[in-house]
Amino acid sequence: MDLFNQNPMANLLPYEGTVILHGNIYTIAEANTLFKTLFEEIEWENDQAYIMGKHIITKRKVAWYANESYDYTYSNVTKRALVWTPTLLKIKEKVEQTTGLTFNSCLLNLYHDGSEGMAWHSDNEKALRVSTDIASVSFGAERKFSFKHKTSKEKIDVFLSHGSLLMMQGTTQEYWLHRLPPTKKVQKPRINLTFRTIQYTN
Ligand SMILES: O=C(O)CCC(=O)C(=O)O
Ligand SMILES: [Fe+2]
């Protein structure tokens, strides 16, 4: 037995965090249908932010859905969460069954092609967070997703395929950054859903 053969359910991080790739939780046919439905039904908007006084509008599109409609402020822009669509609820239930965890909100990102990505960051907005577990579901073009340790700078790459589930847990956000690097190799769109547990008051 090759002990170094990658077990897809093993922790991909060597220390100070837990990242588990569950692999594909949907068949290609199911994932195709979900991609199409999300592409058409989600209320996609360009993301906006004020970063160092500059108003930034991304090409990448985003949407927030949650158990309740509520306002939240992120990068100095106030946004309103939308209430789950039936498709999102079905995906949330599948993720909850697979992981044994529960989530109350979801950030969706639509990358039209490989020229769009997301820069190094960690998802640790303290005001919002009650749990650090994040479930990431991907549809469409396969893309590389990278982790970088905040002090050692060690890098770990993983490929996120059509219908796959990746879990980021424990101290991952505290000690590691992640990003979706842009790439010239990908011409097709990708949709990513990150299910989170956030504390909201309204
Ligand atoms: O598109 C992805 O795979 C990751 C998105 C992400 O990191 C985020 O929404 O915080
Ligand atoms: Fe993130």
From TrEMBL:
GO terms for biological process: DNA alkylation repair. GO terms for molecular function: catalytic activity, acting on DNA; demethylase activity; dioxygenase activity; hydrolase activity; metal ion binding; oxidoreductase activity, acting on paired donors, with incorporation or reduction of molecular oxygen. The keyword Protein transport does not apply. SUPFAM superfamilies: Clavaminate synthase-like (SSF51197). It comes from the Bacteria. Residues 102-199 form the Fe2OG dioxygenase domain. The keyword Amino-acid biosynthesis does not apply. Keywords: Dioxygenase, DNA damage, DNA repair, Iron, Magnesium, Metal-binding, Oxidoreductase. Its cofactor is Fe(2+). PANTHER family: ALPHA-KETOGLUTARATE-DEPENDENT DIOXYGENASE ALKB HOMOLOG 3 (PTHR31212:SF4). This is Alpha-ketoglutarate-dependent dioxygenase AlkB. It comes from Putridiphycobacter roseus.
